[in-house]
Structure formats: structure tokens, C-alpha cells
Amino acid sequence: MPRVNRTAVLTLLIVSSSVFLLFQLYYYRKYASQSGPFILSRTGHLTANDLQWQAVKKFLGLAQHFGLPLFLADTAALRLLSHDALRQRDRLVREPHCSFLCTGRPITSFALHANLWKYEPGFLLAAEQKGFELLELRGEDPRLASLDNLSGEEIPLHFLFRLYGHVIQVVFLYERSGNYLWHGALRFKSNADRSFAPFKLLDYGRHAGSYDRPELVLTVLDSLDVRIPRNVTRFLSEQRRARFLECRYRDARNFLQLYPEDSSPEAVDFRRQVKSLLHSAARILAGLDVPFWLSSGTCLGWFRQCSVISYSRDVDIGIFVQDFRSDIIVAFKDAGLSLKHKFGKVEDSLELSFVSDDVKLDVFFFYEDGDVVWNGGTQARSGRKFKYVFPRFSLCWAELLELKVRVPCETLDYVTANYGAAWSVPVRSWDWKSSPSNVQENGVWPPAEWEELIQVY
């Protein structure tokens, strides 16, 4: 057996130990020497959760120093907060130092109330000095867009910070004239780094979104001071249905160049009355927790000309029949509106009509039937029934007359179904029984039921 060279073995051990010590020194300088201690997992090694917690801790420290009006908007973290206490306690046992902010996702989302913060370049510089990489995404300010001005100034829409491989998204929420908060969609410039973050996993930015202003509370999560919505469940529900459609100002301006808006005193007064009536209807139905959307001519006016059609002489809204409440009529009457007619019944072709200041509000109830939805119509003198058939649609938020309202997300399909391919051409002579492209005969109400099903006031 060959004799072992003790000097060679000793030299090998010294070299190996030196390499290991150098690696430890490098690791310490790169990670553990950053401000604030790392809390290691039970194995004594840094985990993805450790790095996420440290990245969030550093970011919140910077945000507090620079006075950013932030709140936690991360859907995964907020869902943990809405779980029952037992499940929270079980998670605390598994991850004693990071039970809520360490969600296992590579992104943590915060929202910033943009109107309460003056853009501070020093914040971004300080973030870079702390080791954060930054991707700033900007877009046009829709609050400055109008029929007269189509090119709004650019504003920050999203900040993405990256540290230790973890991404922190800051979505900017701006106040809009309809007394709600809005954020823009992610739109990449040609030179943007599309590999910066897993963009498909972001909570915010796939579409523009709108929210009611949440009430916030300051709490402590995983030893960090964080503001969160007081009503977490409501905020999460809003987030799932927040998609917002901007008015099509460019198309509306082209339309109004061909068909100038009526500026007569009567038309101006009608638009004022419609605004008042629509705001009243929104308040009443919100109080009943009944969602509605712009329908028929009112939807066409928003989509085609970003306004109301002055010669339509009424306001049209839609409600799914499953959201009907028996106290709707009483609520409208208590708000000062008069019931003009009530046609049909909850099971079939229900329609309500109210009047305020000589302007009529038609409330159409919609019925789901396979791959279509429909609403009914009734001719009072003959009892004839009609139905108006639409392709299925989802609901988005929009703004009309300084009010946040819902519209069908598939607005073009909705309008085309109702008004045909020539929807962009104004039609002043309109017969509700024959003019709509989607109208169908639907039988006749039995005369014995007219007293109950055809009520005119």
C-alpha cells in the first residue's frame, strides 16, 4: 500500500477550507449582511420564504421612510387574512416568522394612492442603493383625455421592484371624477425587459381596473407594519370584478364630426336630467346591493359617443332577474321616482319603468337561457309579448356622466345584437316592437292575467 503524503493531504485540506470560508464570506456579504436580520428556517438555511420576507421588509422600510401611501393588495396574502382563526394558527406553527406575506408566489402586490403621493425620484434612487432592480411602466393619463384632447400626459402606472429574485408590484391607484379609484393596464414599451417578472402571475395589470375607495387599517403582519383594507372580503370581491373599459374618445370624436351633438337648451337640459336620474338609480340599487348595467340606447350612447343620445328621451338599464328584490319598487318610490308601469312577472318578461322630472327610467330584467340571455317587452293595449336576445356577456366597469357604471364587457357584440351592423348611424325613428335586430315575437299574455301582469299608472 503506498505511503500517504501527509504534506499533500494537509495542503488539500487547507485549500478546501479556504475555498469554503471564501464562499461563506461571499454569501454573507451578498445576503446576510444586508440591513435587518434574516430569520432562517429550522434547517438553518435560507429558504424562498426567507428571501421573500426580507425583500418585503426592505421595501416597506423604504416606503415608510419616503411616506408612500401604500396598502397590501396581494390577493394571496389577503386571502390568508380572511381565513378562519384555526387555519391561521396551523399556518403559524409551520412558518412562525412569515405566515401571511410569504405566500409561495414570486410576487407581492401593493397598491399606492397616487393622489396622496408626490412623485419622488429619491425613493427610486434609494431603492437602487438597497439592491432593488426597477422596471417602471407608464401610460397616458385618461383623466386628461376628452373629445377635445386625445393625447393625455404620461403617468406612472406600475412599479416593479426585484430583489433576491422576488418581485414587488406597486400598482398606482388614481382618483377619477366618478369618485372611484382607477389603475391602468400594463403596456410595454418596445425596449421594456419582458423577462423582468412573471407577468402572467401579476394580480394587477392584465386590464385596467376600478375600485371603491377602501377604508384602511394599520396592522402588524409577520412583524411588519402594513396597511390593509378593513373589509378584506369585499376588496377581494371587487378585485375579481374590477375590469374597466375606457370610453372610446377617438371613435366618439369621429362620430360627432359626422353627427354634431345637439346643443339646444332642451338637449342640454335632458343630459342634465339623465345625469341626475342615473346617479339616483345607482345610489338606490347600490343600497339594495343590486348590480345593474347600461342597456339599450344608454349603452349605445356610451359606446358610440361617450355621452347620452339626446333624442332617446329615456334611460335604459339591465338587471339579471336573479338579482331582483321585492323592495325595489318601494325603494325607487321612497327616493321620489314615480312608477309608470310594471309588466310581466319575475318568472317571465319582468319590466319596470319609473319617471323623474319627465325622464323615464326603463329597468329591463334579463333571463339566462343556454348560450344566450334575453329581456322581455310587453305591448300594454294588446298583451303581445316580445323578447330581445343577446349573446352571453360579462360585466365591466366604465364611466358615464361622472358616474362609475357597469357595461357589457363585450360591448360591440351587445350593441350589434340590439342595433345591427349599422349601429354607428343615428336612427331617430325607432319602433321598439320591430326596429331592434334581436326582437322576436313571444306570444300573448292571457287576458285573465292582464290585471296582474300589465299595470300602467
Commentary on this structure:
The chain is of the alpha+beta class and 457 residues long. 31% of the residues lie in helices and 29% in strands. The chain has twelve helices and 20 strands. Strands 10, 11, 12, 13, 14, 15, 16, 19 and 20 form a nine-stranded mixed β-sheet that branches. A hairpin with a 3-residue loop joins strand 5 (166-176) and strand 6. Helix 3 (75-81) packs antiparallel against helix 6 and helix 9 (296-305) packs across helix 11 (411-419).
Uncertain residue segments: 27-43, 91-95
The percent range for helix content is: 25-40%
Put simply, the count of helices is: 12
How many beta-strand segments?
20
The outline comes out as elongated
The description of the largest β-sheet is:
9 strands, mixed
Roughly how many Å is the radius of gyration? 30 Å
- Roughly how many Å apart are the termini? 115 Å
Secondary structure class reads alpha+beta
Relative strand content: 25-35%
Q: What's the pLDDT, averaged over the residues?
A: 88
